Amino acid sequence: MPRRPMRHRGLVISRPLTFSQFARQSAARVASVYTAKRQMHIAEVLQKSPPNSAGNKTVKNKLKAKNEQLESSEEEEFDGNVQVDFAFFDPKADDFHGVKTLLQTYLDDKEWDLSGFVGLILEQTTVGSVVKIEDDEDNGIFSLVTTLNLGRYKDQKCMTEINEFLLKVSQKDVIDDLRSLLGKEAHSVGLLVSQRVTNLPPQLLPPLYDGLFNEVSWATEDEPTEELKNSFRFKFYIIITKFYRHKTADQKRKQNVNEEAIIYVKPEDEIFHKLSSWSFEFSLNSPQIAPHELRNYQQTGLVMAVKADKVSTFQQQLQSLIEEP
């Protein structure tokens, strides 16, 4: 069934993020790769169409990033323009290894049916996107965003293992709420999965999430059966992610007033966290390699439950965050 075209999103301009200290640092690192002054244009908005004779890619939304030469002395070695064409694609079988790589530590160091989980993601082509560089021969995956219905896939081994993991790391004050979402309410709960490389331009985030939530909405109308339509009528989203907490958070103001207690790896997680109905943290066992500026921080797991009716607020705040001067 053809998907409705992505809505036009206008001009996105690259600016430093100021929502948190790490977001600003992340933006600076992104700039060092793609050059500091960048204007990203929505070059074209394409309706989903069958693969053409020349290839098997279906572009859902193309973002063009044209980069100007850096003005800082650190980047003066760039003597020309760099242009990168990012494209949003439907997930497909060829993306298996790229998606699996992005999700390698999704459940920390747990051994589980990750291949089966990736298979579910790739089979659900009506909702979800992967981000690539258009016409890249390596076919590398830079980002993934999707949502899977916990009730629909409850009998899959990978989903059973995710549930077990969440219950194991959960905190006592929210475990009853968690059990409810994983159990009797599972058919109205979406597992929102968002993984990406660290230097993905943040300007991609609003259209990426807008596309996801548009597709969820369209699926409630366009799926071929009532059962499938209902599987996208979410009331809650569960998000598994990571952030950095200061090792001496309670005393940090006494030690360094410039260091924040919490630093979010993904800027949108700060918004989700504020909008969540409940959340809990858990310790990570997998080896951690943090940049030097985060030497005083410990990476920590974070699980959040966000009501679906908060999505529009999330989208507005995310757009404001990215546009913040």
Feature tags:
325 residues; alpha+beta; 11-stranded mixed sheet; 10 helices; 31% helix; globular
Topology at a glance:
Layout: E1 12-13, H1 21-34, E2 37-45, E3 59-68, E4 82-89, H2 96-102, H3 114-123, E5 129-133, E6 143-149, H4 157-169, H5 175-182, E7 189-196, H6 205-222, H7 226-230, E8 236-246, H8 252-255, E9 262-264, H9 267-275, E10 278-282, E11 297-307, H10 311-323
Helix pairs in contact: 6-10, 9-10
Structural category is: alpha+beta
The H-and-E topology, N to C, reads as EHEEEHHEEHHEHHEHEHEEH
Distance between the termini: 41 Å
Question: Helical percent range?
Answer: 25-40%
Radius of gyration: 20 Å
Low-confidence stretches: 5-76
Portion in beta strands: 15-25%
How is this structure best summarized?
With about 325 residues, the protein is an alpha+beta fold. About 30% of the residues lie in helices and about 25% in strands. Strands 1, 2, 3, 4, 5, 6, 7, 8, 9, 10 and 11 form an 11-stranded mixed β-sheet that branches.
Question: If you had to describe this structure to a student in words, what would you say it looks like?
Answer:
The chain is α+β, with helices and mostly antiparallel strands. The chain has a domain at 145-203 and 214-323. 31% of the residues lie in helices and 24% in strands. The protein contains ten helices and eleven strands. The chain has helices at residues 21-34, 96-102, 114-123, 157-169, 175-182, 205-222, 226-230, 252-255, 267-275, 311-323, and strands at residues 12-13, 37-45, 59-68, 82-89, 129-133, 143-149, 189-196, 236-246, 262-264, 278-282, 297-307. Strands 1, 2, 3, 4, 5, 6, 7, 8, 9, 10 and 11 form an eleven-stranded mixed β-sheet that branches.
